[in-house]
Every structure is written in structure tokens, then in C-alpha cells.
Specification:
The complex is a heterodimer of chains A (137) and B (753).
Chain A: E1 26-35, E2 40-51, E3 55-63, E4 71-77, E5 83-87, E6 92-101, E7 106-113, E8 117-118, E9 126-127, E10 129-136
Antiparallel strand pairs in A: 1-2, 2-7, 2-10, 3-6, 3-10, 4-5, 4-7, 8-9
Chain B: E1 2-7, E2 10-15, E3 25-31, E4 35-36, E5 42-48, E6 51-57, E7 68-76, E8 79-90, H1 125-130, E9 137-141, H2 152-162, E10 166-170, E11 175-176, E12 183-190, E13 193-200, H3 213-229, E14 236-239, H4 245-248, E15 255-260, H5 272-284, E16 287-290, H6 293-299, E17 306-307, H7 314-318, E18 331-335, H8 344-353, E19 358-362, H9 367-372, E20 379-383, H10 390-393, E21 399-402, H11 408-411, H12 416-423, E22 428-430, H13 434-437, E23 444-445, H14 449-462, H15 466-477, H16 481-495, E24 499-505, H17 509-522, E25 528-534, H18 541-545, E26 554-558, H19 564-575, E27 580-585, E28 588-589, H20 594-604, E29 608-614, H21 631-642, E30 649-652, E31 659-663, H22 664-670, H23 683-693, E32 697-705, E33 707-708, H24 719-737
Helix pairs in contact in B: 2-16, 8-14, 12-15, 23-24
Chain lengths: 137, 753
């Protein structure tokens, strides 16, 4: 569930695959990896942003499939220590990580999930969770 | 329907599709199934028929690193209407205060991420770096070192430093580059003045022959290191020897002043390269200054100049003034270079004619002059005397002389010693140099040896006239170096016109914000206004851009309907107050000093009407091969690319209007962008054609780079709608101008994709 439908556009003008909330105080930069268009995210994913104001947190709104155990996700920003949080399975969860970026600071952010699996027999893509939105505030 | 989004420590909650008859809709937040969040954490933002919005402050207790349940309940009169729940996991570290003040890092201004050991740049480097309250950063690319004979370069440098500028005086001798710092501050001779030695691996014996291409590259590396390390802002390069121009002009956004001291071709030791450099510099400098009217007249057929004559530090020579009496032994004095232009035969004849008069000549004398004066007991060659000792050394002078052969070089000279003699109150006898003749009856002019001897006798008789001495000193006081520095600052103030940057925005608030931010922080341009024309954006453009509201340079025009690219720009140009407009897309990010470098061709050559930069994405001759991941890297890469093409222009049929500079006179002659083209596409080709028809040329400025995301505003259109729009506009264009030739990349290595 989101307010509005807005995600920030990437450098190609298309919605950025990392689904960054349009009100986030950042501009996406360069290539993102590990994000599928429909929101599924692989265990290894990464994207880059430039802050337009002070950013102090990264919120990851996601859903972990119900038939799994909790999923741990590690956020590793460039030039900062990594942080790990755990998301329970089967429900919408918001993980909020500390992330300090000063105005115009640029960071590459890696998201590493503890596992990934094939989505189904018909959909053979491998993914760890389904992303609703990333907010950087 | 409930929707929510977590934004930092707030949750935005919205509920829609409610029964519009309900008036008392409330949000209730339950934590962990049974704990009511206190009402003080919940704020209703708006309530309309059938919908409501709130924000909820997340309490600190939620930040324990473990999953907590948050339920959002919409109630009316105690009745639960809807509910949504989610888990929230907040890291404890979110609650930790932010260490230190908010600072801008990697801001693509200077390369601050480079860790430097400032002591490697010389003892005075940290002093130079600490001067943060300054009018401007001025670099003297001079013709002599600081401690050589003190002349115009040092006087101007000192006076500008007194006017609160930070001055870097570049030595004409170079040190060895050892792989670390590329310059060294060798001394601080005056407050705010720093003498800089550039470090190179090439052997550069002397500058007067001009620089080779390798020299230029190494010297550019050195001045760019100075630019970055000393955090220069909008530097002003005062070039006093023309060959420095290729070095100075690589500095981003630099105002290059050619301070033309003398008729360069009149010197025997100046090489052809330097003479060619001067011809180029006369045309390319942002400000051309000459020191004398004859010099200005010689250059005038090529370009008009600002005449800023030499002067004197009147206070310095005050101590040389004294009451002279008729009983003193008369002394005919001279100080300065005693070179091939010195009329030794006149001095010899006068000395022989007046054996009771002593002739005291201060300064290094060429052997031919020494030989010509040999055997005269009343002629003293005192050698070079330092500037600070000069007032004492000339206290015994009765008069000052300027006995110069009238050559093309000397005809153009405005002698500094004229002002200094006058400041000391001395009568002056001089050859008929036009600049001395123009002073009038305060000086005596002699065109022959006989006239020289006669004039000396008359001047010696006047030496004891205290009233005449005062008149001369008063004249000198009107020609102090500080007034020359004021003149120069006044001329500098006229160089750069007011520039209006017009940004038409349609949605993509974050792009627009980044573009505006880059313009406001990286332009280093005082006389600037930034006008954002919001083409009825449906997103949060208005609120996002509010962050710039306090900047007096920033204005925003909000349109109720989307006027399209042409219409938006037309509205912006109508509102603009500048003499030069820059139309800039909202999906761009500029580079430091870009405004000056982009508009320079428009100011130097009025046949050029439109100027655009190089970029990363555009699909025409402006596109260069470049790669970067972020804007800091962009700044580094952009400089690497553009320094290859310093001051190079590339003429084209049309430039892309993602970023284009144009003078107001072109706008007034050619008119507005054609709004037939609607939302966009082809209006720029059309405008360039109309400008060409009016006699204006379009150029790409190869030493300016502006990053372009490309088509941010059109991205939401979809391919098909874009194609239809392009086809429609192409038709309009071709009806006016014939078949559209298409755009192509430049056929040159490093350009295109």
C-alpha cells in the first residue's frame, strides 16, 4: 500500500527499479542491480543515490513469502558499517535502517538477504522478498 | 481504503473511499495488539468528503531492533471502519544523534575528497587557505618575479590585496615536480599576497620564448592543483606575459585579464610563439587592459581596451621629499633599467657640458651603456638598489630624468618612474614619450641632446621651488596604485553581464531540485538569477523547490496549465532581467564555473548568437564519450575531457536546447521560441534556423560540460506518444525549413557514443 503511486525516475527517465519513494530527498544515480520490475528482489541488490538534503534513515517496505522463516536483510552503504535487521515472514514489514548522507552526498547501497529461492515452478526467477517501496529520509 | 508510507520517523496515512457523510473520522494506532499510541503522536492533515490524511510520529520505543506490530484503525463514532497492520523493525541506531553539523560532501565543487597534506605546499599554504573572507581570488601570471625590480605587477598585486582580494603571484621560475604537490607557496611578501612556484618535470629555462605544448600541459596541471587545493572561487587571472594565457584559461570559470604592459614586439628577447600567443590573447581575454594611449591605439584595430596607466606608491616616495636649497650640489638622477633604449649620448653630452653637476644613475646598466659613459668623473653608476631603499637613495636627487630613444617600444611606454619622480617632488626632464608629453607643463620635454642639456639646467634652477615640488607631488597623489587597482576592479565589474538561467520544469521535482542546486552552488557567478517555470507540475515540485526560496537569486513562476517547452521558456525569458539567457533543462547538473565559460563566446564575438556545452547524452555533435557513476566523478571526468579543448568552439547548424546560452539582443531580434511545437521537440532546431537567418551563428563550447539525464520530462509520455509528437513537429519544421537533415555525432575521436 502506498500513498500515490510515485517512485523516482532513474537516469533513463523510467521509474527506478529500486522503487524509491518519490518524496525521498534523493536522486537515483547510475545502474541498480537485483531488482525485478514487479517488485521482487534478489538476495543481492544494490543502487546508488545522491542526497538532496540530510538523509538519516532508509526504510524498506517489503513482504516475505508466508511459507518461509524470517528473512534477515543487511544494508551496506558505501563508506559506512553494515546493519542487519530481520523481517518476519508472511506479512508486510517496514525495516528501518540508519543511513546518514549529508546533502549532495552520494552512496552506493547494497542490500543482502539471507536467502533467495525460485518463485514457483512456472516463474523460475530467484528472489528473496517483494519490495513495495524504499524511502530515504 | 487505507494507504500508508513510512517516511523517516513519520508514517503518512491516508484513507479514501469513505462514506462522504461521515464527519468524525479518526485514526487510532495500536502497537503490539493492545497498546494505544497516545493521541499527541497523531496529527490530522486534511479531511474532505470521503477521505482523510494523517501523519503519525513513531515513538522511540519502536526502535529496539525487533519486530513490532502497528495497526492503523480508521474509526467513526467509536466504530471501526477499516484497519491495516504491518510489522515495523527499527534499528536502535536511528535514535542516535547525528554527529557534527550537516555538511555538503562530494559536492562536485572542488575535489574535497582528496586528502591533502597542506604543509607539502609550503609554509604559507595554510595561511593562504585560511583566508576565507575575501573579495576574489586573483592570480598574477606575471613577467617578473616578486623580488625583481618592483614595478606594475607587484604594485597592482599589493593594491588588490589591500582591497581584500587573495592574491597568488606566480613566479616566472619553476621548481621540480617530485610526484606530489604541483606547486609551492614560496613566500608571503605582503598580507594576502602569496608567491607561488609551479612545479614541473619539464625544463623551462625562461618564459619569454613562449611555452611548448608539453610545458602548457604541465603548467595546467600545476594551476589546477592550485585551484583545487586553495579552493579558488571565480578566479581572476591577470596575465602580463601573453604566453601564460594557455595556462590561465584552463581554470574553470576564470576571468582572464590581459594586462598589456608594453609593445611586446618591441623587445628583442621575445620569441615568435609569444607574439602569436599575444595575438590570440588580445582576442580571447575577457578584459583587455593597456597602460598607455599609444599602446591602446596600436591594438584598437583588433580590439578596444581599458586604459589603466601606471602610478606610484606616493607614501613610499614621500620620505624622498626634502627642502632643496641652491647650495646643494646639483644631482641629476635616474633609476630603472639602463638598457639599449637609454640615450647614453645625451647623458654624456650633458655631463660634459655641466661638470659641476653629478649624474647618479641607479639600476643595472647594459655593457654598451657603461662603455658609452666611461671616463666621466661626474657620472655615477650606482647599480641596482632595492625598492625599499630607493627613497633614501634618491634623497640627493635634484631632478629626475627619462632620457629614452624614441622607438616603437618606447613610444608606447607609460614610465612608472615619471610618477615616482613626481611623488618625490622632483622636476622631470624626459624624451618626448607621448605619455609624458601628455602630462603638460609639469615636465620638461627634450627631443635632442642640446634640448636635454638646456632642460636640465632649467629644471635644476626649479629644484628649490617648494611650491612647484608640491604641485608635482599633488599630481602624483592623483595617480596612486590604489586608484589603479580601483580602476581595474571597476573594469572587472563591467565584464560579465547579468545572466538569467531559465529552467522549465514539469514534474520530476528531484531532478529540478538537483539542477537548481547545481546552478546556485557551482556557477560562481555573482550577477545571476535562476527562474524556474513550473509547467503545472502535478507532483511536489512546488514544495521541493521551496528549499531555495530564501536565495535571492531564485524565482519561481507557477503556471496553471502546461505551456510546453517553448511556451515555458518564453514566459521565463519575458520575466528575465538578464542580458544573457541560459535555457537549461530540469534534468541537468552543471559544472563549476560553467556560466562564464559558456557565455564567453557570445560576449567576445557578436556574430555568435547561440552557445551550447558538451554533454553525456544528447545525440548530436555535443555528445562526448564519458563515463561516471555520480556527480563528483562527473566533475572530475568532465574536467579531464574539457581541458583538452580549452577555448575551442565548434560551429554547428543547431545546438540542442537542453542547455543553450543566448544574448538578449538575439532574443529581441529573432523573437520567442515557436509555440507551434507544443510540448516539445524541434523548437530548438527551428530557433537555430531562425537565428542563422538573422545572421547569428551557433557554436558548441568545447570546454564546458553539463550533465544531462535526457528526456526526464518526456519519460512519462511513453514511446508511442513521443513518436507521434516528434512526427508532428518534424512536419512543422520541414514546412518552414525543408527536409530536416537529422542530428549526427561529431566525427572526431572521443565524441559520440
Amino acid at each position: 500500500m502506498t500513498i500515490g503511486s510515485g517512485f523516482l525516475a532513474g537516469v533513463d527517465g523510467q521509474p527506478h527499479p529500486a522503487r524509491i519513494d518519490a518524496q525521498s530527498r534523493v536522486v537515483p544515480l547510475g545502474e541498480a542491480m537485483g531488482f525485478f520490475e514487479d517488485g521482487w528482489v534478489r538476495a543481492q541488490a544494490a543502487f546508488s543515490v545522491r542526497a538532496l538534503d540530510n538523509v538519516t534513515s532508509l526504510s524498506l517496505e517489503l513482504w516475505v513469502p508466508a511459507d518461509a522463516e524470517q528473512l534477515t536483510i543487511t544494508m551496506r552503504p558505501s563508506n559506512a558499517p553494515e546493519i542487519t535487521l530481520a523481517a518476519p515472514a508472511g506479512r508486510v514489514t517496514v525495516l528501518q535502517f540508519p543511513l546518514k548522507i549529508p546533502p549532495l552526498g552520494e552512496r552506493r547501497i547494497e542490500l543482502t538477504a539471507s536467502r533467495e529461492h525460485k518463485l514457483s515452478d512456472r516463474d523460475t526467477r530467484r528472489a528473496a522478498y517483494k519490495l513495495t517501496c524504499i524511502g530515504l529520509y | 481504503m487505507i494507504t500508508f508510507r513510512v517516511r523517516g520517523r513519520l508514517i503518512s496515512v491516508s484513507c479514501s473511499e469513505l462514506d462522504p457523510r461521515l464527519t468524525d473520522v479518526e485514526l487510532n494506532v495500536v502497537l503490539n495488539h493492545d497498546q494505544q499510541l497516545e493521541a499527541g503522536c497523531i496529527f490530522k492533515l486534511e479531511a474532505g468528503p470521503g477521505s482523510c490524511r494523517w501523519v503519525v510520529h513513531l515513538p522511540a520505543e519502536l526502535y529496539q531492533g525487533c519486530a513490532r506490530q502497528i495497526a492503523l484503525q480508521i474509526k467513526s463514532a467509536g466504530r471501526l471502519l477499516e484497519m491495516r497492520a504491518f510489522s515495523f523493525v527499527g534499528s536502535e541506531q536511528i535514535l542516535q544523534p547525528i554527529a557534527g553539523p550537516a555538511v555538503v560532501d562530494a559536492n562536485a565543487t572542488h575535489f574535497e575528497q582528496k586528502k591533502i597534506d597542506i604543509s607539502a605546499y609550503g609554509e604559507a599554504a595554510s595561511i593562504a587557505l585560511s583566508i576565507d573572507q575575501r573579495a576574489a581570488d586573483i592570480l598574477f601570471f606575471s613577467i617578473i618575479d616578486w623580488h625583481f625590480r618592483i614595478q606594475r605587477p607587484q604594485h597592482l598585486a599589493r593594491s588588490l590585496a589591500e582591497a581584500h582580494h587573495r592574491v597568488f603571484y606566480i613566479s616566472v621560475h619553476f621548481g621540480d615536480y617530485a610526484g606530489a604537490s604541483r606547486f609551492r607557496i614560496v613566500q608571503q611578501p605582503e598580507p594576502r599576497v602569496f608567491e607561488v612556484q609551479l612545479l614541473v618535470s619539464a625544463k623551462i629555462n625562461r618564459i619569454y620564448g613562449g611555452f611548448t605544448a608539453d610545458h602548457v600541459e604541465q603548467l595546467r596541471d600545476a594551476v589546477l592543483d592550485l585551484y583545487d587545493t586553495m579552493k579558488l572561487t571565480a578566479p581572476i587571472a591577470i596575465v602580463q606575459f601573453a604566453s601564460w594565457c594557455s595556462v590561465a584559461e584552463v581554470l574553470p570559470g576564470c576571468t582572464v585579464v590581459y594586462d598589456c604592459l608594453d609593445l611586446l614586439s618591441g623587445f628583442e628577447n621575445v620569441g615568435q610563439q609569444a607574439l602569436a600567443d599575444e595575438q590570440r590573447l588580445i582576442r580571447s581575454a575577457d578584459l583587455l587592459v593597456t597602460t598607455s594611449e599609444p599602446l591602446a591605439n596600436r591594438i584598437a584595430p583588433v580590439r578596444a581596451s581599458a586604459l589603466i596607466r601606471n602610478g606610484a606608491t606616493v607614501e613610499h616616495f614621500r620620505s624622498a621629499r626634502r627642502k632643496r636649497s641652491g647650495k646643494d650640489q646639483p644631482v641629476v638622477g635616474y633609476f630603472g633599467a639602463i638598457d639599449h633604449w637609454f640615450e647614453a649620448s645625451w647623458v654624456r653630452a650633458a655631463a660634459e657640458h655641466n661638470p659641476a653637476v653629478r649624474f647618479k644613475l641607479i639600476g643595472r646598466a647594459e655593457p654598451e651603456i657603461v662603455a658609452a659613459l666611461d671616463g666621466l668623473s661626474n657620472v655615477e653608476l650606482a647599480g641596482e638598489i632595492a625598492y625599499d631603499k630607493l627613497p633614501e637613495a634618491i634623497r640627493d636627487f635634484s631632478i629626475g630624468i627619462i632620457p629614452f630613444k624614441i622607438t616603437p617600444l618606447i613610444e608606447c611606454v607609460n614610465p612608472v618612474k615619471l610618477y615616482e619622480y613626481m611623488a618625490a617632488g622632483l622636476p622631470v626632464v624626459a624624451s618626448p614619450l607621448p605619455e609624458v608629453v601628455a602630462v603638460g607643463d609639469l615636465v620638461r620635454i627634450a627631443a635632442t641632446a642640446e634640448e636635454f642639456a638646456t632642460a636640465i639646467e632649467a629644471a635644476l634652477e626649479e629644484a628649490a621651488d617648494a611650491g612647484a615640488a608640491k604641485r608635482r607631488a599633488r599630481w602624483a597623489s592623483q595617480h596612486g596604485w590604489s586608484s589603479r587597482a580601483d580602476q581595474l576592479q571597476s573594469e572587472l565589474g563591467k565584464v560579465w553581464p547579468k545572466v538569467s538561467v531559465i529552467i522549465v520544469a514539469y514534474n520530476k521535482a528531484q531532478f529540478t531540485a538537483a539542477a537548481v542546486h547545481s546552478v546556485l552552488t557551482l556557477s560562481d557567478y555573482e550577477n545571476l538569477e535562476v527562474i524556474v517555470v513550473d509547467n503545472a507540475s502535478a507532483d511536489d515540485t512546488q514544495s521541493v523547490l521551496r528549499q531555495f526560496a530564501e536565495d535571492k537569486r531564485f524565482r519561481m513562476i507557477r503556471l496553471e496549465e502546461n505551456a510546453g517547452f517553448a511556451g515555458g521558456n518564453n514566459i521565463g525569458m519575458k520575466a528575465a532581467t538578464g542580458d544573457v539567457f541560459i535555457l537549461l533543462n530540469n534534468d541537468t547538473f552543471v559544472t563549476k564555473g560553467w556560466v562564464r565559460d559558456l557565455i564567453r563566446p557570445l560576449l567576445l564575438n557578436h556574430t555568435i548568437g547561440l552557445a551550447g556545452p558538451l554533454t553525456n547524452r544528447i545525440g548530436n555533435e555535443q555528445q562526448v564519450q564519458i563515463s561516471y557513476d555520480n556527480m563528483s566523478a562527473m566533475a572530475v571526468e568532465a574536467r579531464r575531457v574539457t581541458r583538452r579543448y580549452s577555448r575551442r568552439l565548434f560551429e554547428v547548424r543547431s545546438v540542442a536546447f537542453f542547455c543553450v546560452a543566448l544574448r538578449r539582443d538575439l532574443y529581441e531580434n529573432v523573437g520567442e521560441l515557436d509555440e507551434k511545437y507544443g510540448i516539445g521537440f524541434f523548437e530548438d532546431d527551428d530557433y537555430c534556423m531562425r537565428a542563422a537567418k538573422a545572421g547569428y551563428r551557433s557554436v558548441i563550447v568545447d570546454d564546458v560540460f553539463v550533465h544531462h539525464h535526457l528526456s526526464a520530462s518526456f519519460a512519462d509520455f511513453g514511446d508511442e506518444r513521443r513518436r507521434i509528437l516528434m512526427e508532428r513537429n518534424r512536419k512543422i519544421y520541414e514546412e518552414a525549413w525543408g527536409p530536416w537533415p537529422g542530428h549526427q555525432y561529431r566525427d572526431e575521436p572521443g565524441f559520440g557514443v
